[in-house]
Specification:
Layout: E1 3-5, H1 11-22, E2 27-28, H2 35-40, E3 41-42, E4 44-45, H3 51-65, H4 68-74, E5 76-79, E6 83-88, E7 92-96, E8 101-103, E9 110-112, E10 115-120, E11 128-129, E12 132-136, E13 139-143, E14 150-154, E15 158-161, E16 164-166, E17 168-178, H5 183-203, H6 208-224
Antiparallel strand pairs: 1-14, 2-4, 3-7, 4-6, 5-17, 6-17, 7-15, 8-9, 10-14, 10-17, 11-16, 12-13, 12-15
Bound molecules: nickel (II) ion.
């Protein structure tokens, strides 16, 4: 399942984050890639150890915790510390798949990447190209979102970023290890949660049928969650 999560950050938060990021020291993006994706990748990144990246990453993690849609869809167990990339002057990232296991430089965080996320930090009208193309069994999906919006997609998907031919595209990207490893189970739980929330708005949280459905949701989560 691919999910667009609007307004993870407000425009004011994006502007503040960008001030710190734009002033930081960017390096060649191949510092984080495996050998296969290094061939396909042409961009710049902030080093993991960059104070600007760490500070911005903390802000993003805080915002994710406050996003009910993100929590419901990802059922996050561990969120990898957010990284930052910038594409300009024709830079692109050709077709690739993200590594299954990601670990931070010092090895303090190691996760299985169940989900990939891109948080857009540049308004779409400020650059040309730079679409994220994600392939699944329904074909290729083109994603280019307003600044502050996030796209969540299965880390098992083949994807690419098309060349940026005008302006610069700055984004944050990271991976999530979910409490529910199986994509189908996770999607089912998300659909059920969304339906329960919508129903609660119509019939009230204390309707006996809703209590029963909520119980079924939690019992499925109990059955499938690995902590
Ligand atoms: Ni990728």
């Amino acid at each position: 399942m691919m999910l667009h999560i609007p307004e993870v950050l407000t425009k004011a938060q994006v502007a503040e984050l960008r001030r710190g990021l734009d002033a930081a020291q960017w390096v060649d993006g191949n510092v984080t890639s495996g050998s296969q994706s290094a061939l396909a990748k042409r961009n710049e990144q902030l080093p993991e150890s960059s104070p600007a990246a760490r500070e911005a990453g903390e802000r993003i993690l805080d915002a994710l915790e406050r996003s009910p849609l993100f929590v419901s869809a990802a059922l996050p167990q561990i969120v990898f510390p957010p990284l930052f990339n910038r594409y300009a002057g024709g830079q692109a990232f050709g077709l690739h798949i993200d590594n299954a296991i990601r670990q931070t430089r010092g090895g303090e965080t190691r996760i299985r990447s169940d989900l990939s996320a891109t948080l857009f930090l540049t308004e779409p009208e400020d650059y040309d190209g730079g679409e994220l193309l994600v392939e699944d069994t329904y074909g290729a999906h083109e994603v280019k979102l307003p600044a502050g919006d996030l796209i969540l997609y299965p880390a098992s998907s083949v994807h690419q970023v098309t060349p940026v031919t005008r302006g610069a595209r700055v984004s944050s990207f990271f991976w999530i290890q979910s409490m529910v490893r199986d994509e189908g189970q996770r999607t089912l739980l998300f659909q059920m949660d969304v339906a329960i929330q919508q129903l609660a708005g119509r019939v009230g949280l204390d309707a006996p049928e809703l209590i029963s459905l909520t119980g079924a949701y939690h019992n499925l989560l109990r059955m499938w969650a690995e902590l």
